[in-house]
Amino acid sequence: MNLFDTVENLKGIGPKTAEILKKAGISTIRDFFYNLPKTYENFSAPSTIAEMEPGKVVIKGRITALVTRHARRRRLTITEGIIRDDTGFVKAVWFNQSYRVKQFVPEKEYYFTGNFELKNGRFCLMSPSAAEVDDVDTHSGLSPVYVAHGRIKSSDFKRLANNSRNLFAEIPDFLPTVKSGTRKNALFSAHFPESEKNVKEARDYLAYEELFELILAAKLNKSENDKLRSVKIPFNQEKIQEFVKNLPFTLTGAQKKAAWEIIKDMEKETPMNRLLQGDVGSGKTMVAAMAAYEAILGGAQVALLAPTAILATQHYENLSKTLAPYGVKVALLTGATKGKTALKSDIREGKIDFVVGTHALLTDDTEFKALGLAVIDEQHRFGVEQRQKLLLKSPSGLAPHLLAMTATPIPRSLQLTVFGDLDVSILNELPKGRQPIKTEILTEVETKASLYPKIQEVISAGQQVYWVCKAIDDDPRTETTSVKSRSEKLRGIFPNARVEYLHGRMKPAEKDEIMEKFALGEIQVLVSTTVIEVGVDVPNATLMAIEDAENYGLAQLHQLRGRVGRGSKASFCYLLTSGDNRPSRRLVELENSNDGFYLAEVDLKLRGPGEIYGALQHGALDLRIATLSDTKLIHRAQVDVADFLKNPENMLKYKELMAGIARYQQITTLN
User: 289-345, pLDDT tens digit by residue?
Assistant: First the structure.
């Protein structure tokens, strides 16, 4: 067996099934083995229907009276049935799962797993999963649950895994630091568990395996970076002290520390490779301005790459105002810039000190005379190739220093692992005068009673409002209100205010026009999708309402909230919920804390490392098992990686390992 053969070599997988699996990222036999169950249902001790209490339950019974009806809203079907055992009966309900009517045989017993909750005044079992009693291993009572892909459901994955059961014994060892056979035993146990202890041991090994790969990739990236050479930029103490003294505000301690770390880095002949992370409003741009001024004093040009024209323009205006008094020539280069040919000529000849731009900076005809510092804002929005293209624009052959910035606070455990030996500076203080944002969870009833009067109060005071919606258009299958519908409703409620909407499908010129008018105060209420999440700085906006807040992740909610509270005025964020359910933990945590780094740690525990990392970098980390808060496992992997690297022959001996970490290197590298 060759792990890198296509999945079509496995029993039961034909061309059509292989195509579906390929779209899900399962192309090879190795991918198939590593398509691990997302969880396990434990059927060893089911509850009787009479004993059920609200919450998640497992029961055993027969189901009858299955019917499907269409709701008043188009495209929504409701399937209902009655589950019975010797102690009683309970109603089961599924939404948009009409196939359930044909799934069950009335005479057969099934295990049902779902939430037992109050719905329309009656307790029901909501959208339960089902497994035939005869199909469950009575020895362990554990049944793997896989993520469905297309028409391939969890039960199909169980059947396909069982078809290949004998192949698990042929899986070769992967890491040099574990006992022979550990890998094949772990993968077998993950798919065919004998006990919960058995599953834990398997997942512990597979978590260690993932961390080993990730840390090894980071170490190799650091090693490669250390081989490069860059321009040494001497510290100009007198000029930098003058710059800081003339600022209209006092730098925070965190800003001073970060600026000093950057200045020391740029004095070295090895290129700086530093990530500057700071919570929303912590002053990253000013630290970048100091770094740019230092580089320009040393005879280098600077480029700042921003993800959107709005953000690039905002940076250009702020940096021009800050650096122009010192004779620094700052230019803006976006797709809409007029006279690009002349501007690019000035950049090539060194007449421009500092270029702020979007993807237009990456075109082949944008050349520099002496690029010494590249600053990338919201670096997770750029792919590895894009960052590399900017760094290759130094004509001297020397690598420019790199300062990447992100407003997404990164958990400490994630920094240690994902970024390896990458240098990280943290801004964890807000500038003087900034007030914490007051956050409050509101139900639908409370929205009408207290939020609308508060919005009127804010508008009457000459301040502005963001209202965030999930959808652009109305969808009859859901109750989610679109930006278009919400803006119409708000125009009726606030007839004396100008209400406009913004979303990602609008033309760039339209979006820019709306944002410019909002920034100028011509629009009082902006109803928007999450396109405002990053980079919009309107100090006069002091209130944000986030509709259907439960539909957003914690990190995204915190980022959205950061669009208010940009000035010295008191600011408010309202998290609007629907239905009768209690607010989730993430909403409660957001209501109680403005600390982005604390919330990032909470988010890591709630959502898992793969999703967190997907928000930080281009490309998903896709860790299936590892928990990056497990510091003991991280330490063990770090020690073992260091031992692995002591023997260069390991690079050749463990070919599968080295091929696998190539993907992690692409993800973890910043240059």
Answer: 999 999 999 999 999 999 888 788 889 999 999 999 999 999 999 988 999 999 999
pLDDT at 98: 86
Distances (CA, A) of 449 to 147, 267, 443, 446, 453: 42, 59, 10, 5, 7
Q: What is the DSSP letter of 450?
A: I
CA–CA separation, 585 and 557 (whole Å) = 13
**Do 504 and 483 form a contact (C-beta atoms < 8 A)?**
no
Beta-strand pair 142-145/39-42: antiparallel
Domains identified in the chain and CATH numbers: 1-43+139-170 (no CATH), 46-135 (2.40.50.140), 438-593 (3.40.50.300)
Whether the Cβ atoms of residue 36 and residue 202 lie closer than 8 Å to each other: no
CA 152 → CA 98, 143, 192, 193, 642, distances in Å?
Answer: 17, 17, 19, 21, 41
Please state the pTM of the whole predicted model: 0.66
Measured in degrees and rounded to the nearest 5, phi and psi for residue 333 equal -130, 105
Which of 222, 207, 302, 306 is CA-nearest to residue 262?
A: 302
CB 608 within 8 A of CB 625: no
CB 143, CB 43: distance < 8 Å: yes
Rounded CA separation 315/342 (Å): 21
Q: What angle do CA 637, 643, 649 make, to 5 degrees?
A: 120
* Rounded Cα–Cα distance for residues 107 and 613 (Å): 47
- Cα-trace Rg, the chain: 28
Residue 219: what are its φ and ψ, rounded to 5°?
Answer: -65, -40
How many CB atoms sit inside 10 A of residue 168's CB? 20
Other beta carbons within 10 Å of 288: 24
pLDDT at 296: 97
